[in-house]
Design a protein that fits this description.
1 helix; mainly alpha; single chain
């Protein structure tokens, strides 16, 4: 009575391929090609990425030092207070 579950419709001109999970390789050429490619891409993008980080770090450290300096009271202002 009717079609079985999963085969309810007929699709024409559609080709699907599948590969058995036992035939798939999860990490093909990972150590031979993947790690050298990662190192190469890191070296290529280093000069594009690092200058903004260095500038932001310098601004952050300057801002932190300026904040800590401005929190303290100037003793010369309060010399004549009783």
């Amino acid at each position: 009575m009717g079609r079985e579950f999963g085969n309810w419709t007929q699709m024409r001109h559609v080709i699907s391929y599948s590969l058995s999970p036992f035939e798939q390789h999860a990490f093909p050429h990972y150590f031979r090609k993947g790690i050298p490619n990662l190192l190469r891409r890191t070296q290529e993008s280093f000069l594009h990425v690092m200058p903004p980080f260095v500038v932001l770090y310098l601004i952050y450290t300057w801002g932190t030092q300026e904040f800590e300096r401005s929190k303290g009271k100037n003793p010369a202002v309060h010399e004549n207070d009783k």
